[in-house]
Give the backbone structure.
Amino acid sequence: MQESETTENIILSIEWRGDHVRILDQTFLPGRTVYSDIRDVGRMWEAIKKMRVRGAPAIGIAAAYGLYLGIRDLPENSYPSFAIEVNRIAEYLNSARPTAVNLSWALERIKTTIHAHKEEPIGNIKDVVLKVAQTIHDEDKRVCKSIGLNGVELIPKKAQILTHCNTGGLATGQFGTALSVIYHAHIAKKKIHVWVDETRPLLQGARLTAWELMRAEIPMKLVTDSMAGHLMQTGQVDLVIVGTDRVAANGDMANKIGTYSLAVLAAYHYIPFYVATPASPIDLNIGSGAEIPIEERDAKEITTIGSSEVAPAKVQVYNPAFDVTPHALITAYITEKGIIKPDFSENLKSVFGK
Ligand code: MRU
């Protein structure tokens, strides 16, 4: 796979199409490639909640466009009532999913811009909001490419890499986070092989990461989440790379449920554990991972696979969608600004602090 092929090959999960947003509905993958046109804020909220669009950077981008869709038809006669409606719509969008900070990060960025333009006609402010949403989208594409390029130095010439969930072009503006490192290592002609965790319960690894890597012709094998320990114990994993939905000031981070177990296993086997992330999920306002809200999702995600019931009717279920990996288990963060090593409290602040 050459660089140019990579760009063409990597699917765009979100596109602005002049007057609406087109998303690739990830709930249908890998069986069907279904695009969905979103023209109002309610549909965008539903798309984020139901994970038609998913992955921390992608939901930030989706929320930014969603806010524009929500405000574009508001009356233009009074700034105070416009600002009240902006806050209401932003809160509504932010309620779709709690763990990835990208949602509130994107919405706050737009609200700050609106405030800075408050003396201008509301029609102009609406245009500015769309421009900021497009900027958030474009920046994410650029930043994800830099993450990939920066991470290549950490990948040995020949490596077995284990990854979890989906962190590719589907989860971001383009290229991805952890998968961007994998794509760029492959382009750099490193001999890599990727173990893809299926990622129960919603199977983002099996449905999405396997699909992305196979399209890019990167050698991979799908495994169940519970196989990671065996792979590490038998010397079949050289490094783990994952993404993240939120990083606290001390370097603790939340990612898809099952990530913490991988980090513990990696530490036990002296295997490097890397987290690839743009600045957007880094939340220096919270001190540690204990402050990250963990999303709980519908029991049906565990009791059914596709249309089949796999548990007794009315069984009690606990379904946290994310877990927190303590900073002590993380070897380094791979970011658009370079590789960040411990001490994370100091180094995250000096690179990403205001
Ligand atoms: O629930 P999801 O599928 O949105 O969870 C996504 C992840 O956990 C990713 O690893 C994370 O967003 C970071 S990479 C884009």
Notes: The pocket of MRU is lined by residues 54-57, 100, 165, 167, 171-172, 177, 204, 242-245, 255-256, 321 (CB under 6 Å). The longest helix spans residues 122-151. The chain is about 40% helix and 15% strand. The radius of gyration is 20 Å.
